[in-house]
Amino acid sequence: MKHLFTQKHSHLVLSCALALGLMSGAALSQTEMPGYVVNSDTQVWRNAAGDCWRTQSGPDAASRVQCEPETAAAPPPRAAVAAPPARPVEVAQAAPAPVAMSLSAATLFAFDSAVLRPEGRTELDRLSRDIGNMNAERIMITGHTDRLGSAAYNQRLSEQRAEAVRAYLVSRGLNANRIQAAGRGHTQPVTRAADCTGPRSDRLISCLQPDRRVDVQVSGTGTPR
Fold first, then answer.
1. 203 contacts: CB under 8 Å, gap ≥ 6
2. How many domains does the chain have?
3. Are 101 and 127 in contact (CB under 8 A)?
4. Around Cβ 123, how many Cβ atoms within 10 Å?
5. pLDDT digit string, tens, across residues 158-212
6. Domain carrying residue 34
7. Is the pTM value of this prediction over 0.70?
8. Does a structural domain hold residue 72?
9. I need a labelling partner for 138 at 20 to 30 A (CA). Which of 49, 63, 73, 145 fits?
C-alpha cells in the first residue's frame, strides 16, 4: 500500500515537473512573439480553430501582424497629391484682313497734278478720322495713273500723289512710322484696253478716270466708321 502511494506520488511529481518545464519553455519563448504562447521552436501555439493562444500581457502591434493581420495597425494612408491644374490651350487667332479703300484722284488732285485740292483735303480729313478709330498697325498708300504719257512720267506722278496723301495724313495726327507710300504708275489699270480707245481727247481722259486713283490699305484691328 505504501509502495503504491509512493509510485503515484512519483508520477504526480513528474507530471508537475513536465508541466512546469513546458510553461517555463513557453515563457522563455514569449520573447520571440510578445503576447502569444510559443513552443521551443518559436512557433505560436494554436487551438483547434487555428487561433493563436494569447498570454495575459496581450500582443503588441508587431506581433499581431502574424496572428491577427486584419486587426494589425495599418500604415497611415498616403496623402493624395493634387494633380497640377491643366494649362489652358492657347488658340492662335487669325490676323484680321486689311481694310482696303480706293480714293479717286479726280477728287484729290487736278488732272496731271500732285497738289491736293480742297475737296481732296476734306476727303482725307474723313479718312484720317476713320483710321483713327482703328488700332492701325500699318497703312499702305499706293498711287496709280492712267496710261496717257510715258511710263517714267506716270511712275513719278503716282509716287508724288502717294507722298502727298501720306504727308497730309501725318499732319492730321497719324503715326508717320506706320505709313508707307509707293507709286505703281499705269502698271495696274482698272479699265481694259478695249474699253477706252481712240486718240487723246476729253472722252478718252474721262474713260480712263478709274485708273487715276490712290489706294489705301490699313492693317490692324477694328473697322473704320
1. none
2. 2
3. yes
4. 19
5. 999 999 999 999 999 999 999 999 999 999 999 998 999 999 999 999 999 999 9
6. 15-66
7. no
8. no
9. 145
